[in-house]
Amino acid sequence: MQRPTTVERVLSSLLESPGQTDTSLRRAVFDRVRLRNGKVPENLLVLLGRIADQPWAVNDEDISQALAAGYSEDQLFELILAAATGAGVRRLDAGLRAMEEAE
After folding, report:
1. Contact 82, 29 (CB under 8 A)
2. pLDDT grade, residue 57 (50/70/90)?
3. 65 to each of 46, 61, 68, how far by Cα in Å?
């Protein structure tokens, strides 16, 4: 099964439109490219990892550290959205694969 067209449009807007962060960084965060590839700055890994895997564990200190590292609220919004959307799309894709296998 393929992702719905509306999902693809949202992803295109999130990952390809101009913003406060570079599109390559948003894509790296969405795709979970890690520091070993030099794509996601080390000072964002904890925050964005929690957003993707344990959003309930994100706390004020995580955000404060990212702001103190020099990221603006707009930049953090875009990156947090990319991390959360990436996690959601991976789960959607897994569900679509499971449905396809069940048919």
Report:
1. yes
2. very high
3. 10, 6, 5
Instruction: Give the Cα separation of 66 and 19 in Å (integer).
Output: 18
For residues 51 and 84, the answer to whether their CB atoms sit within 8 Å is yes
Tokens of 4: 């719905």
Q: Token digits for 27?
A: 């894509």
Contacts with 83 (C-beta within 8 Å, 6 or more apart), sequence order: 29, 30, 48, 49, 51, 52
Going from the C-alpha of 36 to that of each of 39, 53, 58, the distances in angstroms are 8, 19, 23
**What is the value of pTM for the model shown?**
0.85
Can you tell me the distance from the alpha carbon of 68 to that of 12, in angstroms, rounded to the nearest whole number?
30
Q: How many residues does the chain have?
A: 103
